[in-house]
Amino acid sequence: MADQNDAIRVLIVDDELDIREGSERILKRIGYPVHTAARGEEALAYLQQRPAAIVLLDLKMPGIDGMEVLARIQEMESIPLVIVITGYATVETAIKAMKQGAYDFIPKPFEPEQLRIVVNRAAEKIRLTREAKMLEREKVRTLSDLDMEKSRIRTIIEALPDGVIVTNNTGKVVLMNPAFKQLFGLDADVKTGTQIEDYIPDESFCRLVMDISQGKYIDYGDIPDHEFSLGKEKYLRARGQPVLGGKKECLGAVVNFVDITAMKVLDRLKSEFVAKVSHELRSPLATIHEQIAQVLKDMVDSSIPAEQDILSRAKEKTQSLISMIGDLLDLSHIEEGLICHEPQPVQLGELLQNIVDFLGSRAVAKKQSLLLRLPDEPLPPITTDPLALESIFGNLITNAINYTPEGGKIEVAAELAGINIIVKVIDNGFGIADKHIDRIFERFYRVKDEKTRYITGTGLGLPIVKGLVDSLGGMIHVDSAPGEGSTFSVLLPTTAGRSE
Ligand code: ADP
What is the pTM of this model? Predict the structure, then answer.
């Protein structure tokens, strides 16, 4: 306690030198900074200069007496605790002094211990008061900080050019910003508080937001973007994320919307152009290919190995050009929404088994194990387009074989997740570095490094896969680390494939 006393200044006011000096010694020994005054006037003059926390005040002094000093102290800006020293006192004078604002009293003559007790008690009261004031100040500051933080976040959300909505865990909209209202053509004074369907006219997206809000995607990792159109003229890209509480419980979802109409128009023009060029190239290329094949056939007997070799390679090249053009045309069809799905009941387990069997020989050639893992409970049949699924998983498993070294492991696993089915194609191959992950779904994008340089491909497989998954109302997600392998997860709704 003594080490805290140095912050509590004591002023001793008494006309008796012995009392002043004696008290000063006792109090200094227990750490109080002490000043003394022999008369009332001197004490008041001192207090004008330097405030004291405690004043020990003799009531009977020549000049202005203690009562008068006490009265003047009560008018000061910072009022010290006054302990009156009642020399010839009666109980009445002590009571009178207390009524005028004194905090305590000590009768004269007093023992050092008595003085210590009385002054320490006053010091404790001062400390508590100071602490309470500090806590109060801190509380006010914290509250105003919180308030400021809240209003800052609100201002940021309001000013964002992207549309933003926040839902609670029952899918009710609890916050929306002006950009959202503008994107969806809602009145500026539209209120929050009802279900998401009341604001967004896209059933499957609303279902997704509901699922995210209810915590069904907590462990899914990055939830892929969802694109949809509002009428024919506006295209939006939406990204939803769960909002998690302190115990990782789901409190709702936050969704942001970006207007991608301009990008879509450009994309469509590009697709149309690519489709046109591919179309024009296809027939002449096919003719050249056939002619090379014919010449090769005619040359069988008059064999000049060098020429045969050149022609064989030319035939291979034209063949890969023809299949690339086929891929490009497929992709253009998918991107332009011209793909016509024919949904029918599909046993996904069987479909995957057929693809795994078909590609098994390629895996064997690379001494890889290729396994299909299905759940104990058979998967329910799903209504979807089987050709699209064959193309999706054929491409993904082929990639897994291609980008996994000899002796590697590839696993295809399907499981039911709520109302969806998730199929994962897992390999322990080369993996993909972060900087490439976002780009591998772009047309012609191929990762070229030491390990993949000699693997042939067009860079069109994954764009086709993504286009097909989107058109079935599903989602695709990649987890990968260089040197460790990749997992491509495809989420399929159990009823997928719009007939268009
Ligand atoms: P392609 O296989 O014809 O090059 P894709 O569009 O199918 O084209 O794939 C694009 C790129 O993504 C590939 O070139 C490869 O670098 C990378 N990739 C795809 N699948 C895998 C995988 N399972 N493991 C590692 N890299 C992969």
Answer: 0.56
